[in-house]
Design brief:
alpha+beta; 20% strand; three-stranded antiparallel sheet; HicB-like antitoxin of toxin-antitoxin system domain-containing protein; TTHA1013/TTHA0281-like; TA_system_antitoxin; HicB-like
Length: 70
């Protein structure tokens, strides 16, 4: 899968896991014991998010790439 959505990846001391957030896809998150596992899990969750949105007839946001926050 070719991910074009921005991924925000950080270590959660509380969860003892890497957390991946996909800000362009509301509620889309994944985790993993390693950085690589978290990204792989995010790829799966992104695909599932898109498939679910399609089944529900919802709009799928176009990837914008890097998001900038003020």
């Amino acid at each position: 899968m070719n991910i074009r959505y921005e991924l925000i990846i950080y270590w959660s001391e509380e969860d003892q896991a890497f957390i991946v957030e996909v800000p362009e896809l509301s509620g889309c998150m994944a985790d993993g014991e390693s950085y690589q596992e978290a990204v792989q899990n995010a790829e799966i969750v992104i695909q599932e998010w898109i498939e679910t949105a399609q089944q529900l007839g919802r709009t799928i946001p176009k990837p914008k790439g890097r998001l900038l926050f003020a």
